[in-house]
DNA sequence: TGTGAAAGTTTAGTCGTTGCGCTTATTTAG
DNA sequence: CTAAATAAGCGCAACGACTAAACTTTCACA
């Protein structure tokens, strides 16, 4: 079970890993815009076309694909502890995801990586896109949780605002406090129109 | 005063207009991605180099630059009618801007243009970027209006959420109703932490 | 063992975008 | 009125991200 794959898939995974490693290394050394996609391919010792068979674009090189991110988001709303409001559940979920990463804060590579992403427009935008990708799913989950129609505007607004709150929190030194302040707006506003959720 | 410019500036404005017209025409006919920047330049009868001297990129071809958009946003907060809350003022401002455009709703070109922008990812993203460009300025304006520190998180959150609300409103058939529902969240939440603003 | 799918390569190309050196037209100053 | 300064516009060559096509190698599996 530890090695369920054949030699072929292992080699493929290895190539992918080589590319990701090379990319991160070069981007941290020289900066994202100062590194060409060819440079990455050269260091990983593959052709440029191969690089694009593994990654959808230059920005994707530094992000591990979280496939079940959407499911976790929906579950955070659906399976929230009774008595907890939806904004509270979302705040907790986002903070949890954040502190999961922050566990590695001792690793200097982690803080460097974060700085790289936040200081590179292309990467910042890409990360934001990947995160807000699931707005529609979250909107549906919220609407279902409160028995509202699927296209209810206040549900869509809560979903959008909660997802947007993440980058507000991310750029602050005190994530917990920032989350509390940003979500206070949503909690009070939500309670006013959807009491008990 | 009606003609304060020389022949030079007039010609420049004319080529710029030719480019914008050609771009909109071609984009509407064939779709944004099916039109190359060279096609636009050819129809406008200028070189590609000249096109990029007038517009910062392909997406900018279809947007008139609103230079005082930021000032208007800040003014909407600073000069709001007494007794009106900041979220209310922002909602009105956004709705006003929207209906200013909607005046041209009789013009079939307007609805076509809107569809083009909303259905083309590159244009949708660009428009969103141009709009959210002024988040920092809006945050400062709000903070100043309530006497909070410049980097207050709840002010930043209100600014971000209010700006994000626009695209929520934009894609809905009933802008007024959508704005009311989306901003209800912000008004109640804001009132709870900043009573009287 | 051999066959076919999948990884990888090479080559050539598209498309947006920029830099360079040049011509041409307009403005400004002498 | 003329000459120098200014700016628009041009063609061309290039760069970087990305794709298509045709081909070779390698491994899994029947």
Automatic annotation (TrEMBL), chains A, B:
InterPro entries: Homeodomain-like_sf, HTH-type_TetR-like_transc_reg, HTH_TetR. Residues 36-55 bind DNA. It comes from the Bacteria. The keyword Cytoplasm does not apply. Residues 13-73 form the HTH tetR-type domain. Keywords: DNA-binding, Transcription, Transcription regulation. The keyword DNA-binding applies. PROSITE patterns: HTH_TETR_2 (PS50977). This is TetR family transcriptional regulator. It comes from Streptomyces albospinus. The lineage of its organism: Bacteria, Bacillati, Actinomycetota, Actinomycetes, Kitasatosporales.
């Amino acid at each position: 079970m530890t090695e369920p794959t054949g030699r072929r898939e292992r080699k493929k995974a290895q190539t992918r890993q080589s590319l990701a490693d090379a990319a991160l290394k070069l981007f941290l050394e020289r900066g994202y815009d100062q590194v060409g996609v060819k440079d990455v391919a050269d260091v990983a010792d593959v052709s440029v076309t191969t690089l694009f068979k593994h990654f959808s674009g230059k920005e994707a090189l530094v992000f591990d694909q979280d496939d079940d991110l959407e499911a976790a988001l929906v579950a955070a709303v659906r399976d929230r502890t009774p008595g907890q409001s939806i904004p509270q559940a979302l705040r907790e979920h986002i903070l949890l995801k954040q502190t999961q990463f922050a566990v590695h804060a001792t690793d200097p590579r982690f803080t460097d990586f974060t700085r790289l992403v936040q200081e590179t427009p292309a990467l910042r935008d890409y990360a934001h896109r990947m995160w807000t990708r699931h707005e529609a799913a979250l909107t549906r989950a919220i609407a279902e949780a409160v028995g509202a129609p699927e296209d209810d505007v206040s549900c869509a607004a809560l979903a959008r605002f909660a997802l947007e709150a993440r980058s507000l929190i991310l750029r602050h030194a005190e994530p917990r406090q920032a989350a509390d302040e940003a979500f206070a707006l949503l909690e009070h506003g939500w309670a006013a129109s959807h009491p008990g959720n």
